[in-house]
Amino acid sequence: METTAPAIGMQPVDSSKIHSIGHDAETNTLAVRFKNYKGEATSLYHYSNFTAEDFVALRDAESIGSHFHKQIKPYDKKYPYVKVEAAPAV
């Protein structure tokens, strides 16, 4: 089964709610994998219209989770998103 979602390399981050992030500059797509209450990797989402500069700001933020929840999540018109998978493959 083919998927339209690009395969994006992910990098683990130090955050209580976000497991890892990645960016595809060719498609301006941000990938975010979240954590569950146990700190385990869960859902993967892709956010569109996310520039390399936006990604650097997120990656280098003092708090990645805070930056995400203040600068990205509230702006679903600017950064439309899709849930790519519910949980990582085991």
Automatic annotation (TrEMBL):
One Pfam match: KTSC
InterPro entries: KTSC_dom
Domain annotation KTSC: ranges: 14-74
Source organism of the structure: Cupriavidus nantongensis
Superkingdom, natural source: Bacteria
Name the UniProt record assigns to this protein: KTSC domain-containing protein
